[in-house]
């Protein structure tokens, strides 16, 4: 059968047909459109609805954005330019206000001659953050540090920084770049010193203040070394108590004495000159840096076996989480004077930072508690089986994993806190969003300008917060160890 | 070997307070207790000294003094001759109004946006992503100010609605007017008013409201009884009687009868003179705050809903289909119960956040408890300590009530493990 068949076949194809194009509905853009936008009646209706929404937004706002004016001295001038260029009755955005008030939005009422100081502090911040944030990614670290170096030095020159400080910044920045190539962890020394340095650059005054603060831990270390041969416990207590005694009792006086002997001061800037994004970023960064350790301590306390410690932590956390941040800020501005010894009066920004830190720490504690609870029990038991004591077990086994689990929550707490820094407007500080925009509108030339300042400030906040959330996703991916 | 001493209890030595794990935690707790007490004593002592130095005392008597200021929007009758306490109550009710309205609306927005973000439709999913990211990454205060500015700057004044050819027109079939001072919305009116129940302190509740509440609760109880009866029949005979029309009738017919009986209808606002009358003129502060809170919290709820739906693995719905369940029942019986378990706890904290964020009302001049007790009352009486402590206490109680209520709900939906 097969033989006869083989002989009777009139034609056998010996070459492949050229591949045919797929039907037009099944290929390229058409297929994508059909699958993603018009796969059924409901989907088609949704697509049309979506197009209508987009069309509504574009048709309402396009001409406003298209008719942007970047160069004008007042709102009326802006409107005149718009009317001249695009005809009477045309609408347009007047971004000139941002251009004219840029310095005010960024630095608040900081003395213009000293603008280079916050700029330098901001640049050095990246050096301090480099070993923490980018320690395992040399490529990104090189780009970040390189860009920081170039931008900071360029801005400092543009802002007229004194030559000595320019050299200082150049040495630190270039030195950091060089050191980070060999030993990233050496930069941690700079990260530890940075908070004091940053405070000094921003507020100015005598350098002896921060130096005397630094003396505290040094004294504690000396005490520990001296006492250690006698008794370990006494040494630890001495190392903790002596710095506190030094700060409370002697640091201020010592700083004043040292200043009167050898003056080493830069011009001081009072807190009421702070404003704009300088204020937001100062409060935000301090709050972030302080609330994470406090949150970890609170979370551990809440999971502690000790009844008293646990109940104190629960009361603190639930109290803070139960009241709005505004109420706490009012406590900072109105009530703190009642709670402190008569005659004490300390800086309003510091008070706000303390309240924001406490607020964020309570939320942070709950996030980290979630991470601690999510850790399998076997990890705790393994730590016990290895004979580690409580702190070693937490430091080496529990916390690294628990913190990794809670990264998304931690970062969203950071983002929430950074957004909440705008609320300081209600205690009389010049946040960029409300107070600064009100201040801009208070001048006759910019009376009645609403949308441009809001959109500008919102855009900057969006950039920072969005960058933070993307960084947390990157960190999660980088730290992922399982489920490969 | 025989030398080995028996592990008896060694005699107590003071150093064991530090080195023995049995005593160490006790030592530590005693130290903490002493420190906390010292701190509390220090704070109280400072406060007493400061108050004495200022010549002030600590009492809440100011609450019963005449308030002397007006509140634009009052859910209960209030005049400037009333006490600070009543002003605080008005503020508290205003806080509750905006919080409850905000929670309801934010849940709707959040569910729609969360589901739409998972849609197969590329355009809708992208639009929702833009919405969620834009609202989550920008301070709430900015949205409140922008929405408020839209109302005050863009909307026409009430007199623009006047004349035969007005410059502005009402929306929603001539029922709602957006003006730059208020939003005029229809009120419910009755042709056959049964009068009101006087609760004292000039607070009244319409008998119609009481009748509706009674009828709704009664309907709900009857519905439960019908469900129980259907279950019994199913257990005995194996087939479940059709009950949906009974439940529907029990829930709706009495209410419809009441509406007919009282002659309930919407009364649309009309322009009389320069202002709208007849309807309810809602202050723009409330509308702006409500809209901004809704959209902002809605973005967070959308993410929670999305995470909850993604948390139910695909195998669950496939298994339900394999068992022959219809899509509607799959959703109700299989997917939702599991997704809710993931969704409810973070949803509770979003409701709490919304309630606390409603204190941003001071940015738009809406008189909530922050505006009355923590604002005007505080400034008039100069009693910062009492007013702020009282206000924090109120917020704390509100938060505890919300979390307690939602925790009860949560314990009902959560996984029942053996």
From TrEMBL, chain A:
Originating gene: bztC
Keyword ATP-binding: no
Membrane topology reported for the UniProt record: Multi-pass membrane protein
Residue ranges occupied by any ABC transmembrane type-1 domain in the UniProt entry: 277-472
Location of this chain's protein in the cell: Cell inner membrane; Cell membrane
Residues that span the membrane, as ranges: 40-62, 114-134, 146-179, 199-223, 230-249, 277-300, 312-336, 348-368, 405-429, 449-468
Keywords: Cell membrane, Membrane, Transmembrane, Transmembrane helix, Transport
Protein name listed in UniProt: Amino acid ABC transporter permease
Keyword hit for Transport: yes
PANTHER family assigned: INNER MEMBRANE AMINO-ACID ABC TRANSPORTER PERMEASE PROTEIN YHDY (PTHR30614:SF41), MEMBRANE COMPONENT OF AMINO ACID ABC TRANSPORTER (PTHR30614)
Protein family membership: Belongs to the binding-protein-dependent transport system permease family. HisMQ subfamily.
InterPro entries documented for this protein: AA_ABC_transptr_permease_3TM, ArtM/GltK/GlnP/TcyL/YhdX-like, MetI-like, MetI-like_sf
Principal location: membrane
Pfam families: BPD_transp_1
């Amino acid at each position: 059968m097969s033989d006869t068949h083989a002989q009777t076949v009139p034609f056998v194809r010996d070459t492949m047909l050229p591949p045919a194009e797929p039907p037009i509905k099944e290929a390229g853009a058409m297929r994508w459109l059909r699958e993603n936008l018009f796969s059924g009646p409901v989907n088609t209706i949704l697509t049309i609805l979506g197009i209508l929404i987009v069309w509504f937004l574009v048709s309402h706002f396009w001409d406003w954005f298209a008719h942007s004016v970047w160069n004008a001295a007042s709102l009326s001038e802006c409107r005149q330019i718009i009317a001249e260029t695009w005809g009477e009755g045309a609408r347009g955005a007047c971004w000139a206000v941002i251009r004219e008030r840029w310095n005010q939005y960024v630095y608040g009422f900081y003395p213009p001659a000293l603008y280079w100081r916050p700029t330098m502090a901001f640049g050095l911040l990246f050096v301090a953050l480099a070993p923490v944030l980018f320690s395992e990614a040399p490529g990104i670290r090189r780009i970040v540090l390189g860009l920081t170096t170039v931008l900071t030095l360029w801005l400092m020159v543009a802002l007229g920084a004194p030559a000595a400080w320019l050299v200082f910044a150049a040495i630190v920045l270039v030195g950091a770049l060089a050191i980070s190539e060999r030993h990233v962890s050496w930069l941690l020394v700079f990260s530890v010193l940075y908070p004091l340095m940053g405070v000094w650059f921003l507020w100015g005054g005598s350098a002896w203040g921060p130096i005397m603060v630094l003396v505290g831990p040094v004294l504690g270390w000396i005490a520990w070394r001296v006492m250690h041969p006698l008794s370990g416990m006494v040494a630890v207590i001495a190392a903790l108590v002596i710095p506190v005694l030094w700060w409370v009792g002697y640091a201020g006086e010592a700083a004043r004495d040292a200043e009167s002997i050898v003056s080493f001061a830069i011009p001081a800037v009072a807190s009421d000159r702070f404003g704009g994004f300088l204020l937001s970023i100062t409060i935000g960064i301090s709050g972030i840096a302080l609330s994470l350790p406090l949150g970890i301590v609170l979370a551990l306390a809440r999971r502690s076996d000790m009844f008293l410690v646990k109940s104190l932590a629960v009361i603190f956390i639930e109290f803070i989480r139960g009241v709005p941040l505004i109420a706490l800020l009012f406590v900072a501005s109105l009530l703190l004077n009642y709670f402190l010894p008569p005659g004490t009066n300390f800086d309003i920004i510091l008070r706000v930072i303390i309240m924001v830190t406490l607020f964020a720490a309570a939320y942070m504690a709950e996030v980290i508690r979630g991470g601690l609870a999510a850790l399998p029990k076997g990890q705790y038991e393994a730590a016990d089986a290895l004979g580690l004591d409580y702190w070693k077990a937490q430091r080496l086994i529990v916390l690294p994993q628990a913190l990794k689990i809670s990264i998304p929550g931690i970062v969203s707490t950071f983002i929430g806190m950074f957004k909440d820094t705008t609320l300081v407007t209600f205690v009389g500080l010049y946040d960029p969003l409300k107070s600064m925009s009100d201040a801009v509108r208070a001048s006759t030339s910019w009376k009645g300008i609403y949308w441009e300042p809001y959109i500008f400030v919102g855009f900057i906040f969006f950039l920072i917060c969005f960058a933070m959330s993307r960084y947390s996703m990157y960190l999660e991916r980088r730290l992922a160890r399982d489920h490969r | 070997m025989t030398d080995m001493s028996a592990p008896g209890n060694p005699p107590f030595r003071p150093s064991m307070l530090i080195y023995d794990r049995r005593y160490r935690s006790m030592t530590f707790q005693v130290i903490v207790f002493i420190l906390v007490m010292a701190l509390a004593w220090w704070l109280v002592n400072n406060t007493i000294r400061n108050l004495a130095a200022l010549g002030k005392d600590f009492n809440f008597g100011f609450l019963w003094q005449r308030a002397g200021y007006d509140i634009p929007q009052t859910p209960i009758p209030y005049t400037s001759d009333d006490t600070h306490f009543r002003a605080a109550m008005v503020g508290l009710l205003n806080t509750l109004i905006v919080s409850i309205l905000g929670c309801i609306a934010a849940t709707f927005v959040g569910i729609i946006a969360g589901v739409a973000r998972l849609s197969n439709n590329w355009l809708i999913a992208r639009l929702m992503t833009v919405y969620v990211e834009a609202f989550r990454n920008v301070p709430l205060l900015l949205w409140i100010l922008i929405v408020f500015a839209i109302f005050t700057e863009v909307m026409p004044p009430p007199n623009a609605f006047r004349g035969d050819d007005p410059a502005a027109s009402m929306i929603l079939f001539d029922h709602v007017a957006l003006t730059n001072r208020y939003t005029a919305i229809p009120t419910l009116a009755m042709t056959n008013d049964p009068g009101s129940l006087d609760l004292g302190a000039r607070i009244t509740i319409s008998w119609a409201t009481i009748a509706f509440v009674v009828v709704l609760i009664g309907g709900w109880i009857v519905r439960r009884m019908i469900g129980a009866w259907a279950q019994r029949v199913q257990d005995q005979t194996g087939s479940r009687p059709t009950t949906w029309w009974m439940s529907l009738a029990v829930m709706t017919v009495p209410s419809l009868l009441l509406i007919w009986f009282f002659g309930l209808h919407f009364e649309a606002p009309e322009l009389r003179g320069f202002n709208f009358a007849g309807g309810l003129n809602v202050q723009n502060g409330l509308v702006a705050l409500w809209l901004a809170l809704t959209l902002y919290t809605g973005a967070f709820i959308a993410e929670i809903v999305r995470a909850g739906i993604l948390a139910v693995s695909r195998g669950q719905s496939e298994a339900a289909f394999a068992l022959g369940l219809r899509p509607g029942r799959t959703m109700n019986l299989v997917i939702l119960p599991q997704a809710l378990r993931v969704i409810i706890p973070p949803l509770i904290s979003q409701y709490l956040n919304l309630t606390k964020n409603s204190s941003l009302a001071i940015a738009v001049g809406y008189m909530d408890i922050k505006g009355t007790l923590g604002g005007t009352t505080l400034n008039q009486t100069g009693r910062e300590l009492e007013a702020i402590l009282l206000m924090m206490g109120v917020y704390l109680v509100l938060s505890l009530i919300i979390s307690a209520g939602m925790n009860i709900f949560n314990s009902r939906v959560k996984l029942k493990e053996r």
